[in-house]
Amino acid sequence: MRWCSSPRRGRTGVTSRLTRTRTAGTASRTTRRAASACRSAFTGFCSGTPTCTWFRPAAWTRSRANRSRARKTRSRPERRRVCRSPTGTRPRPRSATRRCPRAGGRSTSKSSDLLSTPTGATVVPRRSAFTLIELLVVIAIIAILIGLLLPAVQKVREAAARMKCSNNLKQLALAAHNYHATYEKLPPINNSAVGTWPVHLFPYLEQDQLYQRWVAAGTLQARGAGGANSILATVVPGLLCPSDPFPAPVYNRGVFGLFTPDGKYEGLCSYGANNGAQLPANNAKDGVFYNDSAVKLLAITDGTSNTVMFGDGYHRDPRWGQLMGTGSDTMEGYAAWSGGPFFIQRSALVGVNYRIPPTLATPPTGASNPEYYKRVFAFASGHTGGANVSMCDGSVRFFRDSLPLITLQELCTTASGNVANPD
């Protein structure tokens, strides 16, 4: 049945509301014609105005509305919520906004967080945040991971320090072999003509310039002139073990004797030459190096692969400062590469990584107390479980703390007649 014309939809049918017009006096001709048709069909139900509402069957209205809703659903995407403001209307996606500020309302967001639109609407972005429980769980997981990671990092650092120490000892052994190839003998621990064994090896450790300065200076006073900039204060990286806890690579002995007014500064050395298995004061000459020595490799009858050449040292002891009265547990005063023959040698008087026992009450000072030599000349290191040594054949080995003292003594002598195996 044809009821009335709907100019809004452009088709024939019954509508719930006729076309809206700005004013009743300026209604369009189409709208007036539709109103007239409506009055002729339903006299008494329509007031005749273009915006009137007239009677229609309820069942037809529902089915018509359902068909219209289905048609809109098929032809349009899903409607979004609309945020209305005094200046206009704009669509707002659900996932992009949190709430719709009304006219005259307040927004709790900061001005920097608001989004402006051409119509003037204000949009508050939706934020996501952690709850307190989630934050605590994340912190706990991070703490556990750090606890697991720190020991691994320490092990890696120690492995790198041990490898560098092994390389330093390897270079010292090769330098001694090059010295032997030149002079047909190994350098002495010390002699009055040149100095200590590191000075003899400087030309073979890429320190030829330092060696030339040392020789040109002539006297110990001239070599120490200039304080921290003197020849004695030169730092040689190849002589320092990464695990040796020196406060600084240069030690200041202070102002005394010839070393005034600048004081005597000395570069330090972590390693020592093998002096044998007895006290240095006994001058037993059973080791590879001793004062004014001239040992040849052929004289090492126990075998170069079974005889120690250089060994690592550790210059810190918890009891040293207490017993020596120095107030410090570091022993940097006994590690100068130029500071005398007793400071840069190793002797097998005690086992590997020896420490002063807590029960010792007498300060280990002077040659009358063997504890002084035991600690100063011990094979030791800051590496876990033992110390690095270089053998006379140029190889580097790691001596464990559990190595028996008698075995260590056999490895430090050149002609004992006993072949020892450190493994």
From TrEMBL:
Pfam families: N_methyl, SBP_bac_10. The keyword Transmembrane helix applies. Residues 1-32, 63-120 are annotated as: Disordered. The chain crosses the membrane at residues 132-153. Residues 106-120 have a biased composition (Polar residues). Residues 154-403 form the DUF1559 domain. Residues 15-32 have a biased composition (Low complexity). It comes from the Bacteria. Keywords: Membrane, Transmembrane, Transmembrane helix. Residues 64-83, 91-101 have a biased composition (Basic residues). The keyword Membrane applies. InterPro entries: DUF1559 (IPR011453), N_methyl_site (IPR012902), Pilin-like (IPR045584), Pre_pil_HX9DG_C (IPR027558). Gene3D superfamilies: Glycoprotein, Type 4 Pilin (3.30.700.10). This is DUF1559 domain-containing protein. It comes from Gemmata obscuriglobus.
